[in-house]
Design brief:
By secondary structure, this protein is an alpha+beta fold. It contains ten helices and 25 strands. It starts with a strand and ends in a 13-residue tail after the last helix.
């Protein structure tokens, strides 16, 4: 197949390419100082809000500047609906996300650059989003990035980069194909959140509000944890677990078979296996994870106390020393203990000990958490009710992983013209 060499890679259609600055608006955020932070006002996006899977999570940080400061000095750094944001500093530079209306209002911090077309009749915004996620952009970043203790690139480098500009209708067709995958992923993500919320609501209804099936016939009795339903017991996390311990200090080798779950894998009460690393060091048998294990981030600032549960069989898998394993003592406790600890995340985050940035959640603190032990009949009924919801979450997460993989394989072939879309009958 005929191809053409360009400053950013090999393409298969004789499409023009232009300096990025001729067709794209880009702007880096200002350098804000610690004294400028406030507890409310204008939310500030930074590199941590752009996730590796391409989503934007503005809830995982709490950075604001006052509205007075924003209006006086930084209004022109406000992010707009549809802006594409790219991390430009740190070891995860080059992450790409997209701002939606529900993220706003928002402004940028340094190390975040926002992009949108200068002329929408020349450059389609969805195509621009595809190009910035492609190797044709990331390869150019690698040519200019300044390697240091904190790698970075900036607007000066962007002015030396290029973008491929096919005919507008071709751009739209490429965007429609890729957007179909993005839409399916987003729909599945919404379904995941609804299913998770239903599971958490059921846990709270039965085990916090005590409105379980037949609760009208069960009197409340005094216990060391206050009034609890008759037949239940006051216990602790240790009392419901067969094993509580930290993981290993890995010897990383990306060619090894053993996978290692780390702090980045645990977010939003879910386990993201896309972010695992690999370990060549022998692992004690008790530190391999099992189905039903509850994993808790146990060191650091910002991620401390995050919880996820292993709800699928994962072969040859362990956790690193920053993550604790809590293993339910019986199968009937898997769903109950998992959802109970996920519900305790905010409490766990406040239980760390030690200096700032080195806080730790000790095994004894996790073990000593008070927890009720419901009747065995109720635990059985809860497992029966909750299992289909949680299994569907795992199924949808696997579907999303396949959709992302397929989309990411298609993306460079579409943007390069290797897959020719010009003759395809696509409504744009």
């Amino acid at each position: 197949m005929e191809y053409f060499e360009t400053p950013f890679g090999r393409i298969f259609q004789n499409w023009p390419y232009k300096p990025l600055s001729e067709v794209v608006f880009f702007q880096e955020g200002p350098g804000l100082r610690n004294w400028q932070w406030s507890e409310s006002g204008m939310k500030v996006i930074n590199v941590g809000n752009i996730l590796l899977d391409g989503t934007v999570d503005i809830n995982n940080t709490n950075r604001y500047i006052s509205m007075g400061e924003f209006e006086k000095r930084y209004r022109h750094y406000a992010v707009e609906d549809g802006d594409i944001v790219v991390s430009s500093s740190g070891f995860s530079y080059g992450k790409v996300g997209r701002i939606d209306a529900h993220h706003l209002p928002l402004m940028m911090n340094t190390s975040v650059i926002r992009f949108h077309p200068l002329n929408y009749w020349e450059l389609n915004p969805d195509y621009l989003y595809a190009f910035l996620r492609s190797s044709f952009f990331s390869n150019q970043i690698e040519q200019f990035v300044i390697i240091s203790s904190r790698p970075n690139f900036g607007p000066t480098h962007l002015k030396q980069m290029y973008i491929l500009v096919p005919p507008l209708e071709t751009q739209r067709k490429i965007a429609v194909i890729l957007s179909a995958y993005d839409d399916l992923i987003e729909n599945n993500t919404r379904r995941i959140k609804l299913l998770e919320q239903a599971a958490h609501d059921l846990y709270r209804e039965w085990f916090v509000e005590f409105r379980f099936p037949g609760h009208e016939q069960v009197p409340l009795v005094e216990s060391e944890m206050g009034l609890i339903p008759q037949g239940w017991e006051a216990s602790t996390v240790k009392g419901l677990s067969s094993y509580i311990n930290r993981g290993i200090s890995p010897q990383y080798d990306e060619e090894a078979e053993c996978i290692v779950i780390n702090q980045k894998c645990i977010r939003d009460g879910r386990l993201n296996l896309d972010l695992v690393r690999r370990n060549a060091k022998p692992v004690p048998i008790d530190k391999f994870v099992h189905f039903g294990d509850v994993l808790i981030n146990s060191t650091g600032e910002g991620t401390l106390g995050r919880v996820a549960q292993v709800y699928q069989e994962i072969a040859n898998c362990t956790v690193d020393s920053h993550v604790s394993i809590v293993r339910p003592s019986s199968n009937s406790l898997i769903d109950y203990l998992g959802l109970a600890l996920i519900a305790m995340q905010e409490r766990l985050a406040l239980m760390g000990e030690g200096a700032t940035n080195q806080t730790e959640l000790s095994r004894s603190r996790i073990s000593g958490l008070d927890l009720l032990l419901p009747s065995s009949e109720l635990l059985g009924a809860f497992t029966e009710a909750i299992t289909p919801l949680r299994q569907n979450v795992i199924l949808l997460m696997k579907k999303n992983a396949i959709l992302r993989e397929t989309r990411d394989l298609l993306l460079p072939r579409l943007v390069s013209g290797e897959l020719d879309v010009e003759e395809l009958d696509i409504v744009t």
